[in-house]
Every structure is written in structure tokens, then in C-alpha cells.
Amino acid sequence: MTTPSRRRLMRDLKKLQTDPIPGISAAPSNDNIMLWNAVIFGPEDTPWEGGTFKLTIEFSEEFPNKAPLVRFQTRMFHPNIYNDGTICLDILQNQWSPIYDVQAILTSIQSLLCDPNPNSPANSEASRIYVDNPREYNRRVREVVEDSWCS
Amino acid sequence: MEDFSIIKQQDEILREIEERQPMFTPVQDFSSLEVEYASNPPFQAKIPYLQSKYSGFRRTRGDGNCFYRSFIFSLFEQLIQNKSHLSNPDSPYSQIYSAIKQKVLDSGDILNAAGFLPICYEDFIDMISAKLEMIPTTEISQLEDDFKDKIIADTYVMYTRFIVSAFLRLHADEYSGFVEGYPDIVSFCNSEVDPMNRECEQLQIIAMTEAFQIKAEIEYMDRNDRTETTLMSFPFEYTGPDFKIHMLYRPGHYDILYPNRS
């Protein structure tokens, strides 16, 4: 049976295939349309450049009325990303709305990478270093970028 | 951005409400309000007035979607109750029915103009259109069943949120002065209209009734010392068919009212 969530995910998939955005890719895992794998490239001209960051996106039957669960699988170092990969981003939590498609979610996460919000820390160490020592912060980000090549 | 622990708390409160309250109760008389306001004289004093005008009310779940859900439910309910008039072009029910079907068909262009993505709204329009087409053969019990299914009920609500949001975005010039605490209409909509469970303020009510061109009459029950509730009517100027949605407002919450049959 096609449920509203599955029908919507088929539309999202078709759009990603016919109208791709550079630096973002996503597709359902082999046998489960409710669980997607995604990759975000680090934005150019930022310390994140060159990184390929893997994520999983888990949709429930209540999608799109309920937000999907998005999580980095690559180890990250960022003020708004928890150590388990969970992301602190308004549109994934209290401002989620069905007006966002999968591309919009991933684009927002991509912009969050180089535009962190240190007032809402998910990783207090990253947040502190981001504010106090930008050179060290960039060095730690570059480490994560290099790690992302082998994970 | 809010802290995860606050978001978790909000989720828990919402889950408790969902477990405790149905989307809608059956239509009931006002005796339960008398019990609820037994120790609240200003509210208690207004119940006889409500009883004189209305035969009863239907409580709706207080999950922040109550206005949107009551509005769309009452629209469908009144059309279903009066389905024998839908083929009579002189009947206000038939006029509202044709107008709404056309508005829903046209809403794709409006949502697109407001900047929404077709893949995000098309399923909502398809579902509402299909439900509208089925009205002549639908029973109230089927409508009630739809609203017991969270996925279907939320789809009705989200469609009305799309319409309110698009109306405000497309009339930003007129309404941007009314969004206190937000830099512009778009950020207001992103925070206060587009997400589910966000309560409806007067601005959203104006947008909803203007966008659908459907009249809503709301009885406001509050703490003043009068024995009558205060009636407000939206949109402020309305010249359409003789059709109204009746609601009861108590601070922070809307329920559906059922007028006495004249």
C-alpha cells in the first residue's frame, strides 16, 4: 500500500534525480524507502571544503507532518552537532514543517556547517573553541575533513 | 534554536495531550463547562447565554492545531449535513461547495506563487480535493473517522496551514505591520504558521477566512464581568453566501459550536 509518507518520498527521490543540487546527494537504502543515506560536500572556500560527510535520514509514517531524524555518520566537530551525530537545527526540531523537502533539509545542514550558532551548543568544546580560538577551530575542522575521506 | 531538553519536554507535554484528548469529542451540551468553571464565576456567568444560542459544542484537542482543525472539520461537516442541497444552485451550501472546490483546485498556483515547492504541497491538494469530491456520498461518521486517524487529520490541518501561510506571504505589504517580534512575514510564517502544533492568533484567523472566503463567527469567553460572550466575525468584510463556521474561544483554545436550529 502507498502511504502518504512513501508517496511523498518517491516525489523527493525523483526530484533529487532529475534536478540535483551540486554538493548534495541522497537516496533510500537498498531495501527500505524509509531509511535514506545522504552525502554533503563541505562548502567551498571554507575550512569544510573537500569534506564528504555521510548522514542517515530516518522517516516515520507520519512524515511529512513529522520531521525525519537526521544524523551524521561521519565524525564531526561542530558547535551544533552532538557526538552521536544528532544535529541541533531549528527546522529539524521545533520549526519542522512539511514545506521543506529533502534537498532543503540537506541544504540547511550544509549552511549550518559554516554558519554555526555557538549560543545553542550541542558540543560545548567545539562551541568554546569556535568562539575563543578560531585558528584551533579551523585546524580541528580540517582534521574532521581529512577523516571524512577514509570513513 | 532551542535546547534539546526543552524540545523534549514540549514533545512529552504534546504526547500527554494526545493520549488524553480525542481530536474531537461528540457534540455535547454545556453541562461539562459548568463543572469545569464551577469555581470561576466570570466564565460560569456566560454559560446560560451560550445555552440560549447554541445547542452544544464539540471539544477539540488542545494541541495547538485546534483552530485550523475545527475550521476545516466544521466546513466539511456542514456540507455533509446539507448534502441534499448541494445540487441546488440557489442554496448557500451549494455555492460554498462550488467555491471551495474551485479554490482548492486553484491553490496549487497560489502556493507556488508564495514560493512553496510543488512536491511539498501537491499531495495535500490531491487529498483535500478527493475528500471534497466525496462529500455527496459521505456520512458524518466517516468524517469523524477521518479525524480519528492522526495522519489524515494532520493532513487536513497542514493544508489549511499552507493556505494561511501563502495568503500572508502574498499579502506581506498589508500584514507585515502585525507580526510583532519578527523581522518580516516570512520569518513569522516559518515559526508561527508552517510548523504543526503552533497556535493560531487573530492574524492567522483573518488570513484563513480571507483566503477561503468563509465566514467564521467566534464567541469569546473571558474574564470580564458581562454575562454574555463577545461575538467577533471574520473576515471583517464579508459579502458571500449565508454560511458560517461557529466557534467558541476560551483563552488559548477553540472548540466548534452548534447553533440552535431556527
What does it look like?
The complex is a heterodimer of chains A (151) and B (262). Chain A is globular. In chain A, a hairpin with a 2-residue loop joins strand 1 and strand 2. The relative contact order of chain A is 0.17. Helix content of chain A is 36%, strand content 18%. Chain A is built from four helices and four strands; from the N terminus they run H-E-E-E-E-H-H-H. The longest helix of chain A has 17 residues. Chain B is α+β, with helices and mostly antiparallel strands and 262 residues long. Chain B has twelve helices and five strands. In chain B, strands 1-5-4-2-3 form a five-stranded mixed β-sheet. The mean pLDDT of chain B is 95. Chains A and B meet through helix 1 of A and helix 1, helix 7 and helix 9 of B.
In short:
The complex is a heterodimer of chains A (151) and B (262). Chain A has 151 residues and is of the alpha+beta class.
Percent strand of chain A equals 15-25%
Mean pLDDT of chain B: 95
Structural class of chain B: alpha+beta
Query: What is the name of the CATH superfamily of chain B?
Result: Peptidase C65 Otubain, subdomain 2
Helix content of chain A: 25-40%
- What is the strand tally of chain B? 5
Radius of gyration of chain B: 19 Å
The biggest beta sheet of chain B is recorded as: 5 strands, mixed
Corresponding CATH architecture of chain B: Up-down Bundle
Annotation field: number of helices of chain A: 4
Oligomer: heterodimer
Distance from first to last alpha carbon of chain B: 52 Å
The largest chain-to-chain contact, stated as pair and per-chain residue counts, equals: A-B, 30 and 28 residues
Strand order of the largest sheet of chain B: 1-5-4-2-3
Please provide the ordered H/E string of secondary-structure elements of chain A: HEEEEHHH
Order of helices and strands of chain B: HHHHEHHHHHHHHEEEE
- Terminal-residue CA separation of chain A: 37 Å
Domain UBC core (chain A): 4-150
InterPro entries (chain A): Ub_conjugating_enzyme (IPR050113), UBC (IPR000608), UBQ-conjugating_AS (IPR023313), UBQ-conjugating_enzyme/RWD (IPR016135)
Active site (chain A): 88 (glycyl thioester intermediate)
Keywords (chain A): ATP-binding, Nucleotide-binding, Transferase, Ubl conjugation pathway
